[in-house]
Amino acid sequence: MTIPSLPKHSDKWFDSDFKFHDLYPLYIRELAQKHWTPLAVAQKASDFLAAEPGVKILDIGSGPGKFCLSGAYYNPAADFYGIEQRNDLVFYATIAKEMLGFNNVTFIHANLINLDFREYDHFYFFNSFYENLPGTYKIDNKLNYSRYRYNSYNRYLCDQLEKKPAGTRLATYHCSEEEVPDGYHLVGTAVDHLLNFWIKA
Ligand SMILES: C[S@@+](CC[C@H](N)C(=O)[O-])C[C@H]1O[C@@H](n2cnc3c(N)ncnc32)[C@H](O)[C@@H]1O
Predict the structure, then answer these.
(1) 3-class SS of residue 172
(2) At the N or C end, where does the chain have fewer CB atoms within 10 A?
(3) Each residue of 16-55: pLDDT tens digit?
(4) Which of 16, 13, 119, 144 is CA-nearest to residue 60?
(5) Whose CA is nearest to atom 27 of ligand 1?
(6) CA distance 194 to 178
């Protein structure tokens, strides 16, 4: 006889994106469609990145934590880390984490150019620097956006990813191939080619 598993306390938040967004205040919910990863995408991306138990997965620009929190729900044997430059988003990510009761998620308030990627095994990137380009949707008006920042953040990211060993996994969402460093090979794609899976050779 198969014993059905009991629903977890957190299950109700993962019924739909709409329900998940109730973890956040209104202004964060209103940004979701343009800026936060849908649950179905987070599930596919985290399934790819959580290749072995205990791996450390970094979301590069984690916003209010939607990718990390949903990844941690779908893949509880992996550890999820999010780095985010905006203090308010880290604050609400941490509150959502506490409401969900997850202990395999850590949020870091910092600019990614101060982070050493050697601490992490695999990476998720939802075109985080894009709002620096003219004519794009911004999360808020609190930062100085510039093409210079877009280029320097991308350079730092490529440099860090290039230093990672063979076997490193990268999932990109809404990114062009030019943003992926040499040495990473496309091994799969999903969601109309918007979500791409890469492994370093
Ligand atoms: C498109 S949102 C994605 C949020 C989250 N990864 C998700 O998928 O739901 C990109 C986030 O990256 C953050 N970000 C952009 N540049 C950053 C930097 N240099 N350091 C840290 N965070 C950054 C932005 O503040 C924003 O919250």
Answers:
(1) strand
(2) N
(3) 999 999 999 999 999 999 999 999 999 999 999 999 999 9
(4) 119
(5) 63
(6) 14
Give dist(CA 76, CA 71) in Å, integer: 8
What digits encode the pLDDT tens for the residues 51-64?
A: 999 999 999 999 99
Residues in Cβ contact with 157 at an 8 Å cutoff, skipping those fewer than 6 apart? 60, 112, 125, 129
Of 50, 116, 52, 55, give the one whose Cα is nearest residue 83. Answer: 116
Residues with CB under 6 A from ligand 1: 35-37, 59, 61-63, 66-67, 83-86, 89, 111-112, 126, 128-129, 139, 153
Q: How far is the CA of 161 from the centre of ligand 1 (A)?
A: 17
Q: Strands 79-84 and 122-125: what pairing?
A: unpaired
Domains in the chain, CATH or no CATH each: 11-200 (3.40.50.150)
In terms of Cβ atoms closer than 10 Å to its own Cβ (0-12, 13-18, 19+), residue 56 is middle
